[in-house]
Amino acid sequence: MLKLDRVSKFYSTNGVVTAGFSKVSLDFELGEFVAITGESGSGKSTLLNVISGLDSYEEGEMYIFGQPTSGYGSSDMEEYRKRYIGNIFQTFNLINHYTVYENVELVLLLAGYDAAEVRERVEDIIHKVGLDEYRNTKTSKLSGGQKQRVAIARALAKETPIIVADEPTGNLDVASAADIIKLLSSLSKDKLIIIVTHNYEQVEPYITRKISMHDGRIAEDKRFARSDANAENITGDGGFNASPGIYSEGVNSEKESSEKNRIKVARQGKLSKGNTLCLGTRNAFSLPAKLLLLLFVFIFLTTGTFASYSNYIGMKNGISNSSWGYIFNNTSPDRVILTKEDGSSFNDSDYERIKAIENINYVEKNDLLMESNFEFTNVPKSLVYGSDSGFDNVMYSDDGTETVMLDGEEVEITFWEQAAAISMDSMSKDRELVKGRFPESKEEVLILIEEGGFLDDNRLDDMFNKYAYLESNNADFPSDGMRVPVKIVGIGYSTEEEVNARRKSTMWHNITMVMTQEGLDRVEALPLVATCITELRVGSNILTVGPPPWSDIWLVADSSVERGKVIVPQFIASFLLPESSGAMDIFNITNMSVELRTRSKYFDRKVNFNIEGTDEIDTRVHIHPDDLWEMYMPSEKYQISAMLKSDLYNVETRALIEEAGYKTLYLNETADKQSAIEKALMGAMRIIVLVILLAVLFFVVYFITKLIMKSQNVYYSTVRMLGGDEKACSGTLLAELLVIFHIAFVLCLGLLLKVKFLGSNILPAYFVRLVRYIEPWDYVILYIVVLAMTLLLAYRYSSQMFKKTAMNAYREEV
Ligand code: ADP
Ligand code: MG
Asked: How many CB atoms neighbour CB 449 within 10 A?
């Protein structure tokens, strides 16, 4: 059935050609148990590899059931191996993290057996090799002899007519080796079994044929009668060449084909889709360390894709207010900014008239507050920070509490939040509060938080009925010393509408403070000081001071300064004083008058102060807080905002407002004013940025995955050896990655939904805000993108890994 006719195998290394074996002619039949012996380097392994189809040959012809094989390409060769050859290796080549059952099962799955058949056959074969007890043991835990039994079981499972084994007992002790040979012998009744051995005595009692090789040629070829250890030499001629007389008759095709019909060859099926998924899932979970690493990588991939995508969405939303974002913090599409045509201030009849216009929800009179956030703390921020930046004055204790000295008393810092101030007009009064009541005086506030958010009951208790200090968050230094104490008289939840309106605004804060109109007017001075420019004038000398980055010199509230005075350090005074004052002796300049003039788009005010010098090294002009307060307290409103019920009708509503005699500024209009080319260019830019981010992410993940999957190379080359084709390998790999991707995606999705609906204490506010922009449809897009990246990843990996033939895989691993 298997016939070699003067077959030679040559190796050429660096131009030197050596023969693995040459002009070997042999004829094998079913039922034979053949031992090939010979000294090292005599060509035994090479011969076995050619018979196994693992190696090609250069000369002669090998026939299988009368079919010549010299014309076989590599896919024909794989087909040949699948159909006819079962391999057993000295090094077992088992999948160590699989159980005995799974190792045997794998071969059957790869050969396309269906699930129902598999179980029975596997049990049967495991019984045949005597491993019933170890059915569910991982093969890594077995002894050498037991491992080789598994390898034999695996070779049997394929139902090939030929089993070849290169030194199957080479790694075994004497007793196990004898066992294995006995087992192989019992299996050889209806198969052709060819083994290479160094230990002829061991196999002698069982074999039916002995082939000795010497220097690449057949030195001896003896046949024995079965179970007769000392049978005589039947056909061997004892010469260095097998007799050409016997083997050169050509092919008796009639005999061969009838034989072919009689015997079974291994099934030609393929790994089914369902079994691919099963194997992939099994592989996903088989090695916990690998699972964790891959999970980590896929969580990284998913969150990275999410971040790139939400960045894209952010840019897309951002474009509409890109030209205003640097001036206005709050670019909500609901907001229309109003000024009067004649530039005068707004009065009550203006408010009434505007409010009456259709689609206007409410009027925000304290327009500047829409741009502002406050630090909302139970201790003044400036106390905590001390003179420089850094938490100079905080005392940390062992139990984790942080305290500062406040009016001679040690006070624990219990809350520190970002807060925005809104008027009573902007909210519905028809609601129940969690605690307390609505504000009635200018220093009372009601705080609104998101229900189910991160502020727990303990923290709310900490706040309720206490004072909080508000300091402007618009700039750090200029508010220095200016703070407003407010009392928390009520706590409530924001309605869904309010939450949605907040999300449209570009301001981010944890707490919304509701105040009376007087209260709002009072706190509006804080962002004004923090954002306005002030001029100091002495005669014709003008020094402009203001918050960084406008100026390096700014005003600071300092209660040690007498009212009606400013204290100016020498360095500043030298810019201000008239030349005629002579030497720069600043102690001589008491009672000189300085004019402070505020310059802002809101109001314009001049106040006179007496100037006093100091030789302190400072860059700040000191002024009593009450003076500063009075200077900046807005009395008139020259700019207000009208908030729309629906921004969809902003064009119509703005037309109505303008008809009523006001100028409007709509921050989101700029996008519409862009030309088509500008829009297209910006759109293309966004997509380019997105693609670059995703590509970088993909390659990072690809290389990490490749490193992790390197540990699987042995697995996949074994699968190739067992008859798994490229498709089976890449399918299994894909299934494994898909399983892990889905676990990672569900984990990420859970986290995202948690953050979206419950908020987060740990994640940065920016991230939390991005999450809120993500809509259900975006999750679908996100899923598709990450899925596509996973497919691409699997495809790239597969095309690099599995292109090689089974033989190359074998050479690399064995
Ligand atoms: P054995 O298994 O009997 O010890 P081999 O079949 O491994 O012998 O080797 C037979 C001859 O072929 C030796 O001379 C060896 O050097 C040569 N040979 C085997 N494999 C290769 C190879 N991959 N490249 C070059 N020469 C090889
Ligand atoms: Mg060898």
From this structure: 21
